[in-house]
Design a protein that fits this description.
350 residues; seven-stranded mixed beta sheet; two-stranded antiparallel ribbon; 15% strand
């Protein structure tokens, strides 16, 4: 899966340990699914999962890793990805924007991205198969990029991996049904009911759309106007999240938590967030009894590299190299909504 700020790869064992003992948990809603790493792991554990994210690239990852059934799609996906991987490069908008005007990928790999993405767009594929192809391309580009993982900027010199040829692989699909959607969190909270809801919301000023705008443009293939050195989509300025604003995150989280239709709530948060652990717990206590656990966590690679000015000169000293990831488990059984049945179900086409 792609390199990702806020990835829960190292926290996965603790998340699974929290979920495994809960009686009656068969369905899970992941409301801020990101790369779908957690949702994918929960599906692998045998749960019926629906993954939601308001960014198109993340919803595409969810469609591939959670909604797509390996038994249904593997043969067709393998054939399609072999066909796409054989295409010669043909430079276009992606190459011009991200390889010439900026330097996220080597131009030869950018030309391959253009050719493969144009071909996918021309095929009128079913949603799951298209998502599998797009994730294969996204991850192939990620393996040969020249960034530190985020797309706010790119390295001053080409990374060693950027010289490797872009090659497609079939993503790690899982057997069984699941669901995916591209909704705002509050919409998904109202639309889907589950035995457990997992929340991993943005917690500070770092916008996932701003950090991963290249993947958003690759998936949408709308060839948007861009701005700045980083060639960000202009709509990054317009599609802000309340969770990225200090004065708005508390009411945003409270609104989502109140809307959840579930027995159990599991929340991942960081001690570097706009809300303190006590504030998060106070919000969650409205829904039931809360238990809290803490895990030390190494901070992201950009922190390890250091702070530089636009000329590439190191100008600052980062803070501590570790933060704390917090997990809050809420038993909302006593206050669970007895409202009408959910308007959407956990189906492979949800």
């Amino acid at each position: 899966m792609i390199k990702y700020l806020g990835s829960k790869r190292l926290l996965l064992p603790r998340i699974l340990e929290q979920v495994a003992p809960l009686r009656g948990v068969r369905t899970v809603l992941d409301l801020f699914s990101g790369t779908s790493r957690v949702a994918h792991a929960l599906k692998r554990a045998g749960l019926r999962v629906h993954a939601n994210d308001h960014n198109a690239y993340a919803a595409t990852l969810a469609t591939c890793y959670v909604q797509a059934d390996r038994g249904r799609w593997l043969t067709e996906a393998t054939r399609l990805i072999d066909e796409l991987d054989a295409l010669a490069g043909k430079p276009g908008w992606f190459t011009e924007t991200f390889c010439m005007r900026s330097r996220y990928l080597q131009p030869v790999n950018g030309a391959r991205v253009d050719a493969i993405r144009d071909r996918i767009a021309s095929l009128d594929l079913e949603p799951e198969l298209e998502a599998i192809a797009l994730v294969s391309l996204m991850e192939a580009a990620d393996r040969v990029d020249s960034t530190t993982g985020v797309q706010m900027a790119y390295l001053k010199q080409w990374a060693a991996r950027s010289h490797q040829p872009l090659r497609l692989r079939v993503p790690e699909l899982l057997d069984g049904p699941g669901g995916a959607s591209c909704l705002e969190a509050i919409e998904a909270a109202a639309a889907f009911e589950a035995d457990l809801v997992y929340l991993d919301p943005p917690y500070n000023q770092h916008s996932y759309l701003g950090n991963y705008h290249v993947w958003e443009s690759l998936v949408r293939w709308d060839k948007p106007d861009v701005y700045g050195v980083a060639m960000k989509r202009c709509d990054v300025r317009e599609r802000g999240s309340r969770f990225n604003r200090k004065g708005a995150i508390e009411p945003a989280l409270r609104e989502v938590v109140r809307a959840l239709r579930t027995r159990w709530i599991l929340v991942s948060f960081s001690d570097e967030g706009y809300l303190t652990p006590d504030q998060v717990e106070d919000i969650l206590r409205e829904r039931g009894a809360v238990t809290r656990s803490v895990a030390p966590h190494r901070r992201y690679v950009g922190h390890q590299i250091g702070i530089y000015n636009p000329r590439g000169v190191k100008v600052g000293t980062p803070g501590p190299d570790r933060n704390r990831e917090l997990l809050f488990l809420v038993d909302a059984g006593a206050t669970r909504s007895r409202a009408r049945p959910a308007r959407a179900s956990f189906s492979a086409t949800a």
